[in-house]
Amino acid sequence: MMGSYFLGWLMVFSALVLASATPKNLPVLSFDEGYSQLFGEDNLMLLRDGKTVHLSLDERTGAGFVSQDLYLHGFFSASIKLPADYTAGVVVAFYMSNGDIFERNHDEIDFEFLGNIRGKEWRIQTNIYGNGSTTVGREERYSFWFDPSEDFHQYSILWTENHIM
């Protein structure tokens, strides 16, 4: 439906703690082969396998990285564990955007994990913006039925020529 609008996307990750993961039958690139660090020099730690990174947040900054290649369609997945402490005002995001190419007319697909106050329900917001407009798309918020700070959980986007799931 909206696939024709999403041209020249970069996969962008911005999170507190993130490890890349895919189903067993899909290839996984090493970090150096597929990604470049965007920001947070000391807050990105590449693990020994070369395919997993941990991102952290301190008083000044978080960390983020971006894919080196552009993608039109695909399966994009991340294993994410959210921070357990007071995180109101912090957003952990796993998203795709063509904003670097179309600054004034960018599209976006994302998961945004909204900050939390201890004892309150965690919330996730999903966004799909097409044709450079928030009026062409959908934004939804959901409450988790589990605590996403207790363990890593898999979050995935399957994007075909005709559907985004």
What does the model show?
The chain has 165 residues and is mainly β. The protein has a single domain, classed as Jelly Rolls (Sandwich), CATH 2.60.120. It has one helix and twelve strands. The chain has one helix at residues 31-34; strands spanning 9-14, 18-20, 35-39, 44-46, 53-55, 64-71, 74-80, 91-97, 108-114, 123-130, 133-143, 153-159. The strands form three sheets. A seven-stranded antiparallel sheet has the order 3-6-1-8-9-10-11. Residues 1-22 have low confidence and may be disordered.
Strand order of the biggest β-sheet: 3-6-1-8-9-10-11
- In total, the number of domains comes to 1
What is the strand tally? 12
- The CATH first-level class comes to Mainly Beta
Termini separation comes to 12 Å
Sketch the major β-sheet. Answer: 7 strands, antiparallel
Can you summarize this structure?
The protein has 165 residues and is an all-beta fold. The protein has one helix at residues 31-34, and strands at residues 9-14, 18-20, 35-39, 44-46, 53-55, 64-71, 74-80, 91-97, 108-114, 123-130, 133-143, 153-159.
Give the helix/strand layout.
Blueprint (H helix, E strand, L loop, with lengths): L8 E6 L3 E3 L10 H4 E5 L4 E3 L6 E3 L8 E8 L2 E7 L10 E7 L10 E7 L8 E8 L2 E11 L9 E7 L6
Antiparallel strand pairs: 1-6, 1-8, 2-7, 3-6, 4-5, 7-12, 8-9, 9-10, 10-11
Structural key phrases:
seven-stranded antiparallel sheet; three-stranded antiparallel sheet; 1 helix; 2% helix; globular; 45% strand; mainly beta; disordered N terminus; 165 residues; Jelly Rolls
